[in-house]
Specification:
alpha/beta, Rossmann fold, 15% strand, binds ligand GL2, Alpha-1,4 glucan phosphorylase, EC 2.4.1.1, glycosyltransferase, allosteric enzyme, transferase
């Protein structure tokens, strides 16, 4: 069809849809109605491909991957779906012809925030990559009634509001009543001797109906549409539940990450983990059998991947189904389970490795607890003879009254991977070292990736279009081809064009800040960006100390040179993470102080954008000049905003941590700003207890002055919070070595500021980053999982060869 025909047809479908759904004309329709009408048109286009994909999988008996994740962070779907369907440009043209503000229409879509940060967004990037490389992969998670809280700032403090994302219904989802599963909690379980062997008998407990809502995951430029299945908790039909019983049940899919600082919160969290794990596994096995396969064929037909330890109960749940419901023997059930399940670890932080109290676990999931006891016993027996009792004890799922989920995941899966080379190495050497001794072949690395489609082609259309003019469009399918851009790094006209695109993106962000925050930021200044969850190890505090350093220099030293910067933060702090919230308050007060001081603010401004999420990221990332990735080395498993920022031409100001190392290596060290202690130094300090924050404070007058500013009234309105930050750094000896890296950070920032003044040289570095970003495409990451862990086909290589 000619493009004009497509536009004409789209226009007709859109106007018809508006009338059919809302009985309004275009002129009278609200942006929300326009969005919903357009989304309905797009959904219709997806539907046929989706049905065919499902039929095709069933008819060919394709092996299916199921990606189990307690978080998905899709953001908005409309623009990404249009892009993948190849209809984005036509839709833009249609909207122009209709004189409709397309941006306003897209912004009427709610930003689906069913995740906290990188882990959830990675799951959604994988949902985009899988169909795009024609891989048979589905998501399995929870349809939270309320997503991650909506953040606002009042007097500089974070305030949390509920995220009522279903208020206007979700256009994309499809409820599947006939796929519902019952999930059972609590009660007592007895083992009874029957002619078929020991069988559990259940007494009491709670039945919850898990109802799935499916959303089509659209492949780019192909006919593949996979399924993301999110489960919602309801009262089973026929069960008379009181109001309070009903609310207990519904709370299971009520909200993302309930506060886990108290017992009831933790109980709910465990229930959530079992909820989507059990519903998912039951449903998979049901279909597997209905399609005529034997249980022994499960590992050949199905790969279940657990995204971090939250879905680890998949392992005992599969054992329960195979043993109790199908009468398999222990060894054969264990073989099937372990060959089906694989596990990605996403964190090195000890406190983030999940553990449950055995009492709580046994109360909530009594049968699963019995099975874990049995897994534990088998494990001890099998390793003790060769490795000794102490080793068996250290690696057991049950120890010290707790259930250790990472150990259970390592024992019960056939593959374990980390998410960046350093992280995978540290897993083998430290965190999961004992398991590496037992099963070295289980371990591998799969470096995270991102979808360039969302973060470049959709969010930064002008950059992608500019790149097309130089190297054609193949790189959009084969992201590594973007390295061809390196041939143009001496092309001055092209560098100028790149700089123009960056400036336009900065202006777009500046307009947003002006409109939403009432602050006019200087687009000629360096946009120095730190966007990620607020956590002590990510060290937003180090960035803040750098800001205070510049501020004090400008105030007190007439000769000080500070390159003009706009410091841009966006971050949510977990509601129960008091210290993180205190840091937000201090940053906001520093921002106030700086922005309202005419003596400095032609040189520096600080903005903390509220309610960080996927859509805000899509606005900030194309506008960034500098990407702050400054975690304590050895703490950030990978990071993914680093990759998104790089692809959009920001230079990394980074510690040698997570995937920063690989990004800096790919872009070339001369095109990035690495600083700070390396992992070995960090570990040495922890082991030798030779780090003294107090000594650093005493011996560095500049830093001394900066820290004092937090407690001597220099920064106004932070009496309590400034003191808390000061105490954590000095009294508590600075767990994350903020002070240890301070000097190196401010020196590197100063060098960066100088370099930025040569715009052409800077843009050349920016180009080097863009040109090296291809290898961080999630298409490659997912293909590597497919080849090495899941053993399912995809067509990434075929695309390469057909070129
Ligand atoms: C995380 C890691 O902290 C982060 O470094 C990594 O990039 C992502 C995805 O692998 O996973 N782990 C984790 O629990 N969250 C992350 O973002 N929330």
């Amino acid at each position: 069809m000619q493009q004009n025909d497509t536009v004409t047809q789209l226009k007709q479908e859109f106007l018809d849809s508006l009338e059919a759904h809302f009985a309004v004309s275009l002129a009278d329709a609200t942006d929300l109605q326009r969005y919903q009408a357009l989304a309905a048109v797009v959904k219709q286009k997806i539907a046929t491909k989706w049905r065919r994909t499902k039929e095709d999988y069933r008819d060919t008996g394709a092996k299916q991957v199921y990606y189990f994740s307690i978080e998905f962070l899709p953001g908005r779907y409309l623009r990404a779906n249009l892009l993948n369907l190849g209809l984005l440009a036509d839709t833009e043209q249609m909207m122009t012809e209709l004189d409709v503000d397309f941006t306003a229409v897209m912004e009427a879509e709610v930003d689906q925030g069913l995740g906290n940060g990188g882990l959830g967004r990675l799951a959604s990037d994988f949902m985009d990559a899988m169909p795009s490389i024609a891989l048979v992969g589905n998501g399995n998670g929870i349809r939270y009634r309320y997503g991650l809280f909506r953040q606002a700032f009042i007097n500089g403090y974070q305030v949390e509001y509920p995220d009522d994302w279903l208020k206007n219904d979700d256009v994309w989802e499809v409820r599947q009543d006939d796929e519902a599963q019952v999930v059972h909690y609590g009660g007592n379980v007895y083992l009874q001797d029957t002619p078929d062997g020991l069988r559990p008998v259940y007494d009491g407990g709670l039945d919850v109906l898990a109802v799935p809502y499916d959303t089509g995951m659209v492949g780019a430029d192909n006919d593949v549409v996979n399924t993301l299945r999110l489960w919602s908790a309801e009262v089973p039909e026929g069960v008379k539940a009181s109001v309070s019983e009903r609310s207990v049940i519904e709370s299971i899919s009520g909200e993302l990450y309930p506060d886990d600082s108290n017992e009831e919160g933790r109980r709910l969290r465990l229930r959530q983990e079992y909820f989507f794990s059990s519903a998912g596994v039951q449903n998979i096995i049901k279909h597997h059998l209905a399609d005529g396969y034997s249980l022994h064929a499960l590992p050949f037909q199905v790969a279940i991947h657990i995204n971090d330890t939250h879905p680890t109960v998949v392992i005992p749940e599969m054992m329960r189904i195979l043993l109790d419901e199908h009468g398999l023997g222990w060894e054969e059930a264990w073989g099937i389970t372990t060959r089906t399940v694989s596990y990605t670890n996403h964190t090195l932080l000890a406190e983030a490795l999940e553990r449950w109290s055995q009492d709580l676990f046994a109360q909530e999931l009594p049968r699963l607890f019995q099975l874990i006891q049995e897994i534990d016993r088998h494990h001890r027996v099998s390793v003790a003879s060769e490795h000794g009792e102490d080793f068996a004890w250290r690696t057991s799922p049950l120890q010290d009254g707790q259930v250790h989920m990472a150990r259970l995941a390592a024992i019960g899966s056939h593959a374990i991977n980390g998410v960046a080379p350093l992280h995978s190495q540290l897993l083998q050497d430290k965190v999961l070292h004992d398991f590496y001794i037992l099963w070295p072949a289980k371990f591998s690395n799969k470096t995270n990736g991102i979808t360039h489609r969302r973060y470049m082609h959709a969010a930064n259309e002008s950059l992608s279009a500019l790149i097309d003019t130089k190297i054609g469009r193949d790189w959009r399918k084969l992201p590594k081809d973007i390295t061809k851009l390196r041939d143009f790094n001496m092309d001055e006209a092209f560098l100028r064009e790149l700089a123009v695109v960056k400036r336009q993106n900065k202006q777009r962000l500046a307009d947003w800040v002006s409109h939403n925050m009432g602050i006019d930021i200087n687009v000629d200044a360096i946009f120095d960006v730190q966007i990620k969850r607020l956590h002590a190890y990510k060290r937003q505090l180090l960035h803040l100390l750098g800001i205070l350093t510049d501020y004090l220099a400008l105030k007190h030293d007439a000769n000080a040179y500070v390159a003009p910067r706009v410091h841009i933060f966006a971050a949510k702090a977990a509601p129960s993470y008091h210290y993180a919230k205190q840091i937000i308050k201090v940053i906001n007060e520093v921002a106030n102080m700086v922005n309202n001081d005419p003596a400095v603010n032609d040189k520096m401004q600080v903005v903390f954008l509220p309610n960080y999420g996927v859509s805000l990221a899509e606005l900030i990332i194309p506008a960034a000049d500098v990407s702050e990735q400054i975690s304590t080395a050895g703490k950030e498993a990978s990071g993914t905003s680093n990759m998104k920022l790089m692809a959009n031409g920001a230079l990394q100001l980074a510690t040698m941590d997570g995937a920063n190392i690989d990004i800096i290596h790919a872009a070339g060290a001369e095109n990035a700003y690495a600083f700070g202690m390396d992992t070995d130094t960090v570990y040495k300090h922890y082991e030798q207890h030779d780090y003294s924050a107090w000594d650093i404070y005493q011996n560095n007058p500049k830093l001394h002055r900066v820290l004092d500013a937090l407690i001597d009234g220099t920064v106004p309105n932070v009496q309590e919070e400034g003191q808390a930050v000061f105490d954590s750094l000095i009294r508590d000896n600075d767990e994350y070595f903020v002070l240890g890296d301070y000097e190196s950070y401010v020196d590197t920032q100063a060098r960066l500021g100088q370099d930025y003044q040569n715009q052409q040289a800077w843009t050349r570095k920016s180009l080097a980053n863009i040109a090296a970003s291809g290898e961080f495409s999630a298409d490659y990451t997912v293909a590597a999982y497919a080849d090495e862990i899941w053993h399912v086909p995809h067509n990434l290589l075929a695309q390469q060869e057909s070129k």
